Amino acid sequence: MEKNGPLKGLVIADFSQLAQGPFATQMLSDMGAEVIKIEPVKGDWMRHYSYGNLYPEGESISFVSFNRNKRSIALDLKDPEQSKIAIGIIKKSDILIENFRPGVMERLELGYAEMKPLNPRLVYCSSSGYGASGPYLKRPGQDLMAQSISGSAALNGKKGDIPIATAVGQADLLTSLFIVQSVLAAIYSREKTGKGQKIEANLLNSAVGFHVQEVTAFLHKGSNPERSESGIPNPWLGAPYGIYHTRDGYVSVGMNSVRRLARALNFAKYDSEEYDSNNIIENRDEIRKDFEEVFRQKTTEEWLIILLEEDIWCSQVNTFEEMVEDPQIKHNNMILEYEHPTIGPVKTTGFPVSFSDTPQRISRPAPLLNEHAAEILKEFCNYDDQQVEHFLSKELT
Question: CB–CB of 252/302 below 8 Å?
Answer without folding.
Answer: no
